[in-house]
Structures are given as C-alpha cells and as structure tokens.
Amino acid sequence: xxxxxxxxxxxxxxxxxxxxxxxxxxxQRRVPxxxxxxxxxxxxxxxxxxxxxxxxxxxxVTWHERGFADTDLDEAWYCIAATDLPEVNERxxxxxxxxxxxxxxxxxxxxxxxxxxxxxxxxxxxxxVLGNREPQRSARIRDEIVEQMREGVLAARRQRRRTxxxxxxxxxxxxxxxxxxxxxxxxxxxxxxxxxxxxPRELLGDLPADVELVDVAKLPRGRSAQQxxxxxxxxxRALAGKRVVRFKGGDNFVFGRGYEEVIACxxxxxxxxxxxxxxxxxxxxxxxxxxxxxxGVAHEFTVISGHLPPGHPDSLTEWSAVARLRGTLxxxxxxxxxxxxxxxxxxxxxxxxxxxxxxxxxxxxxxxxVLSTLATLAVDLEAEQVKPPAIIVVGDVVAxxxxxxxxxxxxxxxxx
Length: 416
Ligand code: SAH
Description:
- Keywords: Cobalamin biosynthesis, Lyase, Methyltransferase, Multifunctional enzyme, NAD, Oxidoreductase, Porphyrin biosynthesis, S-adenosyl-L-methionine, Transferase.
- Residues 166-377 form the Tetrapyrrole methylase domain.
- GO terms for molecular function: NAD binding; precorrin-2 dehydrogenase activity; sirohydrochlorin ferrochelatase activity; uroporphyrin-III C-methyltransferase activity.
- Its EC number is 2.1.1.107.
- This protein is of the alpha/beta class.
- The chain folds into 3 domains: 17-116, Rossmann fold, CATH 3.40.50; 165-275, 3-Layer(aba) Sandwich (Cobalt-precorrin-4 Transmethylase, domain 1), CATH 3.40.1010; 282-406, Methyltransferase, Cobalt-precorrin-4 Transmethylase, Domain 2, CATH 3.30.950.
- Helix content is 31%, strand content 20%.
- It has helices at 25-36, 50-57, 86-99, 135-151, 181-188, 223-239, 258-268, 280-287, 319-324, 338-347, 377-383, 396-401, 403-406; strands spanning 17-21, 40-44, 61-64, 78-81, 102-105, 118-122, 125-129, 165-170, 192-195, 212-215, 243-248, 272-275, 301-305, 328-332, 355-360, 368-373, 390-394.
- Helix 1 (25-36) links the parallel strand 1 (17-21) and strand 2.
- Helix 6 packs across helix 7 (258-268) and helix 10 packs antiparallel against helix 11 (377-383).
- The longest helix is centred in the middle third of the chain and has 17 residues, at 135-151.
- The structure holds S-adenosyl-L-homocysteine.
- S-adenosyl-L-homocysteine binds next to helix 8 and strand 17.
C-alpha cells in the first residue's frame, strides 16, 4: 500500500467541519490555511498557543479545551492529528479511519491517509507540492515554482484580466523591493501606468512592452492643471476599457492627492480600488535606523507637510500647538521651509537642543542622513546642500538612534 503515489486533490472546505487535534506549533501552522479556505475549524486540545488563542478570541476557530474523544470526528470532513503524543495521534487516526474521514498525521506520514502539501499562490493559481516525505525539499520546490511564476520565467502568463478600472498603487519610499506583493501584481496587470516622479522608477523597467506609460512629470506644469490632466487621463483610459494603475511614491493618500483621483473616478462611474504603500514618513526613518516611536521616549508621532511656511494664510497647521507636543515630529516637503519651521517650533517652546535628523533620498542608493538640532538646522541644511526629497525627523527618537552624537536619552518608563 505504501508504494502507491498519493492522489492529489484540492479540497473545498468552506463551511465544512475540520478537526485539528493538538494546539501546538504544528496546529498553529495549519489552522490559518484552513480558516483561509473557509473551513469551520475545531481545535481539540487541553492547551493552545497564544496565536491559536487569538484566533479563538476573534471567533475564527472553536476550541474544545480538553483531550480528544473519538466522537469529535463524528461531523468532520477532514482532520489533522497534530499532538506531540504518538499514542493520541494514533487514536485520532483510528477514529478517523472508522468514520472514513481523511486524516493528516504530524508525527508519522506513513500512518496518515492524507498529506499536507507545501503550498504557494500566485495570480490565482495554487501550487501544491507533495514530496515523498521530504517537507523541506517540497518547500524549496514550491518556492522555486512560485518565484519563477512571479518573475514570469514559468509561462504562467494568462490572458490579462480585462476588468477595466483604476487601481491606486503606492510604490513605497523608493527601493523597488519595498512595494507590496499586491502592488506589484497590479502594476504587472496594467494596460496603462500613470507614474509620478517619486514613484519607484526601477519597477517601471519590468513592465511588459505593450504597457502605455504616462509620465506625470511631462504633463503641463502648475499643481491644479496637472492634477486635472491626471484625472482626465485615468478616467478616459478606464472608460476606454483599460486597466489603469496610478502609481505613486509612498502611499497615495499621504500627501499624494489620491483621494481627488478617487472622487474623479467615482464621478465618472469608473471602478477604483486602492493598494496601500509603505509611506515615507515611517519607512524612510526606519530604514535609516530611526524609530518614529520608542518606549518611554515618544508616545506619539505627528506627520506634517511643510510645503507652506508657518503663518501662511493657507496653512492648516497650528504651529504653536505643534511646538507644545512632546512626541516625534516628521516633516515632509519641508526642506525649503525648514528654517522658518524650526523658528516657529523654538518660538513655541521646543528646546534649541532638540535633536533633528534629515534623511535624504531614503531607501535609495544615494541615501544619507544629516544630524542637526533645532537651533542649528538652517545652517546645517545650507552647509550640507540638502535637496528634496527629504524626511525631517524632530525629537528624542533621533538621540535614541544616535547617542554618540546626542548622548543617552533617559526613559520615562521602567521595567517591561
Ligand atoms: N505619498 C508620499 C509622499 C509624497 S509628498 C508618501 O506616502 O511617502 C513628497 C515628500 O515625501 C517629499 O518631499 C519627502 O518629504 C517625502 N519623501 C518621499 N519619498 C522619500 C524618500 N525616498 N526619501 C526622503 N523623503 C521622501
């Protein structure tokens, strides 16, 4: 019997009872996939890991807090024996066999009636690899197949989905690796890509040759004329039946005018969806080694656009209130107005010694960090010839990251 190959099958488990016996790490690995398949998951175990407990708390699985009883399998379609006690797994196997329920064995594949393949998904295709009891080899083969599908090496290309509409895709701070999987997929599925200056350029090189690339930097100048033209282009192309990706740096809704595009699409009856991106005020400091919060140092971080100077009639920022905040300030589009902003913060009561880090071209090959203080920011920006794009981080988190320059920062919280 052992010599026969397995018979592969894709189980459709939605709303069907699946029993997992055991609440340890094997169970923890299997349960989320069962939930994703829509199964009605019952975990039978005297104890479960905190992760499983979390799923119980959120109502995604039912936990029977006790040992296994044969009758647990009465209504089951499928079961997984995942305890670390072989004799319990054996009992589960036997009870399953009696009830003609397929049963996976975590401890002994030869005693199982079903095997869990190494699985991966790409573009609507599930890859399932069943090795001959060599799980690591199966996982490696799975990884290779999925990777090659992603890269287009494996001819997984299919008729491009022709559902027209607009997808707003956030490309992340600049490093092409920092786009999301969903973002990259939307990009590769597009007929038209409307890209900004700050969108990760390298990713555009991977686009299939027949994709129309609209470079926003080449559209008419002036902030509102340009935005109107973008709205017109994305709506027109979508109405003509194309899949349009509006591709921006960071996240489209963080100083990205993304919602104006959502409104324009809605008004024209064009379906529009959003793929969020890693936004630069958080990710650029992170990659530069600066946390925007730190326990006992900053309990808030505030992201502010500096494109208008303090006191400008159109400014919506109350700088005197900002100055009184104790947490981290992250200033964007602020290189030009930084001297006036520093002045406003000092006038509002922030200490002249407040640490400042200016991260230029974050996550990109030319990334550099200029350290300064509120009192010396204007001089340092000038001396270091800082040019946009840059993120300016103000507050003690900068000192936490750079004690060699600013000294150690005392924490207000003790213990853990
Ligand atoms: N939507 C973008 C922000 C657009 S506003 C996002 O979510 O990140 C443009 C400003 O973002 C720039 O002036 C700069 O302050 C900041 N910025 C974006 N990418 C950056 C990068 N790679 N390095 C430093 N600053 C960056």
